[in-house]
Amino acid sequence: MSVGRRLLARVREDVAAARAHDPAARSALVVVLSYPGVHAVWLYRVAHRWWRAPGLRLPARLLSQFARFLTGVEIHPGARIGRRLFIDHGMGVVIGETAVIGDDVMLYHAVTLGGKSSRREKRHPTLGDRVTVGAGATILGPVVIGSDSSVGAGAVVVKDAPAGSVLVGIPARDVAHATPGASGPRDSLTDPAFYLDPAIYI
């Protein structure tokens, strides 16, 4: 497959992911023209290619800052992001340099994937596939969030979490695995607004 066809296929994937996650996405054209989270991901992918090319790290950083100005989303070009990331609303999202994000991840607005160290090391989170992170949630340090996990709005995550976790509160606790053998509440959650309220689990 040529580079152009591969690029077009990725664009179509991103648009399809946005439409699958957001019922307000009435058409592909609406997504292409008016979704800042999608625009931020597209600009990140260009910046990331530049970041990995010899001598282009400064242009990569400048492009990432331009993307931040346009979209309100700051993604360091050194981050590693899988396919079909969807950032809903977008404003205030920050993704650090050593963050790693799997496929089919969804981030709501004001999510921070931040670091706790000033050393040049792996200092930002790793999210597995199909992870959902609610509005205003903060995940700090080189923690690993397993695939198929959900992080509630406003949660502050500072520890690793296994696959299928539901993380709520400050500091976040895993309510899906709180009882040995329990399947957790995640299967019954169809509306993110439901599990984003930690008070539900108290």
Automatic annotation (TrEMBL):
Classification via PANTHER family: SERINE ACETYLTRANSFERASE
UniProt superkingdom: Bacteria
Protein encoded by which gene: cysE
Family listed: Belongs to the transferase hexapeptide repeat family.
Protein name per UniProt: Serine acetyltransferase
Keyword Acyltransferase set for record: yes
Record organism: Herbiconiux moechotypicola
Pfam families with a match to the protein in the record: Hexapep
InterPro entries on file: Hexapep (IPR001451), LbH_SAT (IPR045304), Ser_AcTrfase_N_sf (IPR042122), Ser_O-AcTrfase (IPR005881), Serine_acetyltransferase (IPR053376), Trimer_LpxA-like_sf (IPR011004)
Enzyme class: transferase
Pathway: Amino-acid biosynthesis; L-cysteine biosynthesis; L-cysteine from L-serine: step 1/2
Keywords, comma-separated and alphabetical: Acyltransferase, Amino-acid biosynthesis, Cysteine biosynthesis, Transferase
Catalysis performed (reactions): L-serine + acetyl-CoA = O-acetyl-L-serine + CoA
EC number: 2.3.1.30
